[in-house]
């Protein structure tokens, strides 16, 4: 049994059957309870752990239906409409559920009813397992009013008024009830009786497509599981093809007989239908799972769900095999992302900022896609400013030749942006000959560098038009040390206007 | 045995190793006679910029093999990346996408590749897929996976601190896959060349100070590198200073730096090499 601290009092939060037999009940003070049963064993109440356990239980119940809702603190609601036949009908589904719960060492009450309210009432207060459409009113009638999922105060008031059962309640005229207790009471009553619809809020979003395989004989080998995965991927392909779509996000659920569930999520580059690619995406994760844990109780249900899909454009394959190349690259990106994480496999895209660290961002390659034709915005932006860019349409050789004949005209300035950029500028100690000037020397990572050449400053101001706190202005210098190493340094803050003691940072490395 | 020409032995070794040509010079399908002829021709070739340009051709994908590029330390990583990006930029867009694998520790030490900087260096950043692996071992795995795809222009593996991972076995595995897929692999070792390697060529790369401006302007010059080719199976080795022109992807010879005034008391040409024993300092 557990104890919760409510205000300054310590009250019983939950009791086990033995304590219940001794006359204890939740809500009792701990001192009182000790007086009743001196040999009491007490644990602190941990609602978060309870909630986490309920969530795990809900995951285990996903095997029956994807529509599982939580009714905290201790209930689960399963919408099994259209699912029961998969288990041989409602009675055997209920039996299966109970067996599994008992095997997991829990005690639980379960009931099946046409409405969520009735099922909740039967599970908590009733004795009938399975209600049919016609039996609801009759079965609910003798139950106490608490069975309607109303707050305890309301139930106490109703009882004081002599309205002890649901039957009592139903015999009262509705208008005074609504006036006295508000709309909640009647809504609950109607929901239980099926006169008002009650939508179930599933614990997690429903997959768009779902294929699964129930195994009469649980399997114990991971490679058998991946063989089943391949079959499911084939089944999913048919369903996706019918919709003209491909999957973007997939979840593989492996339901163990002991109630635990291993779930593997995977994302793909572009919509995918090909079973080979789907299995390839999961393969490294399955291997990782196999390395981490063993199948002790056997897997008896494997489910493959598509949580996000996108239409596949029926592009015609060209003779060069461009599409094949794209598919191969997408597959590679998927495999790398699956093992290293989607954020570890990136492509560079142009950012909407002139602040250097935001001018280009590394986006997950799975989101950017696997197309490599065409010139990117980043490249256009960098080459547009240059008169002699690498644009292939230009009569390049000729123009270069002309410009080389004119030595005063430099055809190409050295790059103004570094090849490598530190995500966090590294602080350096710099010595400048004049306050606003370039550094004469600086110390970076405990090594002193003597500056031989420098160019700058290039002043990059913070983006004040975005509002919010605006960082100080940066003056960037390109410097070269005596050995020819090139660095991108900046001084943060304008002298006297923004700061008295500007700090220096190293932001990048030039070639 | 002494009468067997060296070129024949080279050809025999090449055949044993399953290489089509004799070194980076041979073209697949050539007869061995013409190959030995070209070998003979090459032995007389002195190392220079043209060798660099033949190894890393313009508007073409180089031969599928492993090139090992090392810098003296993390602070020279800019120059090391510069040479690698220059070589990749030379291949041209048609060569295909590039997978650049880096381990996370090294990426923290030397910074991430920067899009605008790449674009200014003559390569479209969108051609790159950047892979950041948690460990050196993961980086090697990613590179081997990348070599299962045939459309790549190149695979770059950058492993800094854990470059012990890039030993003979690992580089051999990469080399076999590179040859099978005919995709060049560039191993970048920012922390130094301290392990053995099965690479076809090994380079040491150092930054090179800007060429002094003839008009006395104090700004930075074109990116310059001191390249030292320390191994070249079937070809000459040597050192050359180059500059890279991003706009037409060409290497240019860097003019020698006036380190000191010409000596008046000795000849400009060095005499025969001598080894002089000096007492140990400490």
Task: Characterize the structure shown.
The complex is a heterodimer of chains A (511) and B (282). Chain A is of the alpha+beta class and 511 residues long. Chain A is elongated, with a radius of gyration of 34 Å. In chain A, α5 crosses α10, α11 (222-243) runs antiparallel to α12 and α12 packs parallel to α13 (322-340). Chain A has a six-stranded antiparallel β-barrel. The model of chain A is unreliable at 386-411 (pLDDT under 50). Chain A contains 17 helices and 17 strands. Chain B folds into two domains: 1-44, no CATH class; 48-253, P-loop containing nucleotide triphosphate hydrolases (Rossmann fold, 3-Layer(aba) Sandwich). Chain B has a nine-stranded mixed beta sheet. The N and C termini of chain B lie far apart (49 Å). Chain B has eight helices and ten strands. The radius of gyration of chain B is 20 Å and the shape is globular. Chains A and B meet through α13, β10, α16, β12 and β14 of A and α4, β3, α6, β4 and α7 of B. β12 (420-432) of chain A pairs antiparallel with β3 (112-113) of chain B.
Question: Main attributes?
Answer:
heterodimer; A: 511 residues; 6-stranded antiparallel barrel; 4-stranded antiparallel β-sheet; B: 282 residues; alpha/beta; Rossmann fold; 8 helices; 10 strands; 21% strand; globular
Greatest contact pair? A-B, 69 and 68 residues
Mind summarizing the main beta sheet of chain B? Answer: 9 strands, mixed
Strand content of chain B: 15-25%
Name of the CATH first level of the largest domain in chain B: Alpha Beta
- Under the CATH scheme, which architecture of the largest domain in chain B would be assigned? 3-Layer(aba) Sandwich
Q: Termini separation of chain A (Å)? A: 68 Å
The separation of the N and C termini of chain B measures 49 Å
Overall pLDDT confidence of chain B: 82
Estimated helix fraction of chain B: 25-40%
Low-pLDDT parts of chain B are: 20-37
Report strand order across the widest sheet of chain A. Answer: 12-13-14-15-16-17
The helicity of chain A comes to: 25-40%
């Amino acid at each position: 049994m557990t104890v919760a601290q409510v205000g300054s009092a310590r009250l019983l939060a939950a009791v086990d059957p033995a304590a219940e037999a001794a006359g204890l009940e939740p809500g009792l003070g701990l001192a009182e309870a000790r007086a009743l049963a001196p040999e009491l064993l007490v644990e602190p109440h941990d609602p978060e752990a309870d909630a986490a356990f309920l969530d795990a239980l809900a995951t285990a119940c996903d095997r029956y239906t994807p529509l599982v809702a939580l009714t905290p603190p201790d209930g689960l609601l399963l919408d099994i409409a259209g699912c029961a036949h998969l288990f041989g009908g409602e009675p055997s589904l209920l039996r299966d559920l109970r067996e599994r719960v008992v095997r997991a060492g829990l005690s639980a009450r379960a009931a099946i009813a046409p409405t969520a309210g009735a099922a909740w009432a039967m599970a908590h207060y009733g004795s009938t397992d399975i209600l049919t459409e016609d039996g609801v009113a009759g079965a609910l009638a003798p139950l106490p009013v608490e069975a309607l999922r109303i707050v305890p105060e309301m139930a106490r008031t109703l009882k004081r008024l002599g309205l002890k059962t649901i039957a009592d309640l139903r015999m009262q005229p509705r208008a005074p009830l609504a006036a006295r207790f508000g709309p909640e009471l009647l809504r609950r009553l109607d929901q239980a009786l099926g006169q008002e619809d009650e939508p179930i809020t599933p614990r997690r979003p429903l997959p768009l497509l779902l294929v699964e395989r129930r195994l009469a004989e649980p399997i114990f080998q991971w490679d058998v599981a991946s063989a089943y995965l391949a079959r499911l991927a084939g089944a999913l392909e048919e369903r996706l093809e019918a919709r003209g779509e491909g999957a973007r996000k997939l979840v593989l659920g492996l339901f163990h007989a002991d109630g635990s569930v291993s779930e593997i999520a995977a994302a793909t580059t572009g919509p995918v239908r090909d079973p080979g690619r789907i299995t390839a995406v999961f393969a490294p994760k399955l291997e990782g799972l196999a390395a981490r844990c063993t199948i002790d109780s056997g897997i008896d249900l494997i489910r493959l769900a598509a949580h996000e899909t996108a239409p596949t454009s029926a592009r015609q394959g060209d003779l060069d095999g461009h599409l094949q190349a794209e598919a191969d690259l997408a597959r590679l990106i998927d495999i790398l992302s699956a093992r290293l994480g989607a954020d570890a496999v990136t492509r560079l895209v142009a950012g909407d900022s002139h602040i250097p660290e935001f001018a280009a961002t590394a986006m997950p390659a799975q989101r950017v896609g696997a197309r490599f034709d065409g010139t990117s915005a980043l490249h256009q932006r960098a080459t547009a400013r240059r008169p002699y860019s690498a644009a292939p349409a230009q009569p390049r050789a000729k123009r270069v030749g002309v410009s080389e004949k004119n030595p005063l005209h430099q055809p190409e300035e050295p790059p103004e942006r570094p090849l490598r950029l530190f995500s966090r500028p590294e602080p350096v100690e710099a010595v400048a000959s004049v306050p606003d000037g370039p550094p004469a020397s600086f110390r970076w990572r405990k090594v002193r560098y003597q500056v031989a050449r420098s160019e700058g400053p290039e002043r990059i101001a913070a983006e004040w038009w975005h509002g919010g706190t605006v960082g100080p202005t940066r003056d960037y210098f390109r410097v070269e040390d005596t050995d020819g190493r090139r660095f991108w340094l900046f001084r943060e803050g304008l002298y006297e206007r923004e700061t008295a003691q500007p700090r220096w940072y190293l932001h990048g490395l030039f070639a | 045995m002494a009468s067997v020409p060296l070129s024949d032995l080279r050809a025999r070794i090449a055949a044993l190793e399953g290489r089509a040509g004799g070194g980076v010079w041979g073209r697949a399908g050539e007869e061995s006679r013409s190959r030995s002829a070209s070998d003979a021709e090459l032995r007389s070739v002195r190392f220079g910029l043209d060798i660099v340009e033949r190894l890393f051709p313009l508007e073409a994908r180089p031969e599928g093999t492993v090139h090992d590029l090392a810098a003296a330390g993390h602070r020279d990583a800019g120059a090391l990346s510069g040479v690698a990006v220059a070589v990749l930029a030379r291949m041209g867009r048609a060569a295909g996408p590039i997978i650049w694998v880096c381990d996370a520790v090294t990426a923290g030490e030397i910074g991430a590749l920067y899009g605008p900087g790449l674009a200014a260096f003559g390569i479209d950043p969108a051609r790159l897929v950047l892979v950041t692996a948690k460990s050196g071992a993961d980086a090697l795995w990613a590179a081997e996976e990348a070599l299962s795809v045939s459309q790549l222009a190149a695979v770059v593996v950058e492993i800094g601190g854990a470059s012990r991972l890039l030993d003979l076995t690992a580089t051999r595995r990469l080399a076999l896959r590179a040859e099978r897929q005919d995709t060049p692999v560039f191993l970048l070792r920012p922390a130094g060349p301290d392990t053995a390697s099965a690479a076809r060529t090994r380079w040491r790369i150092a930054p090179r100070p800007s060429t002094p401006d003839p008009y006395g302007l104090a700004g930075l010059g074109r990116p310059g590198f001191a390249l030292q080719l320390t191994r070249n199976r079937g070809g000459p080795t040597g050192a050359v200073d180059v500059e890279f022109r991003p706009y037409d992807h060409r290497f240019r010879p860097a003019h020698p730096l006036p380190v000191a005034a010409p000596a008046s008391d000795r000849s400009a040409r060095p005499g025969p090499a001598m080894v002089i024993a000096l007492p140990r300092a400490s």
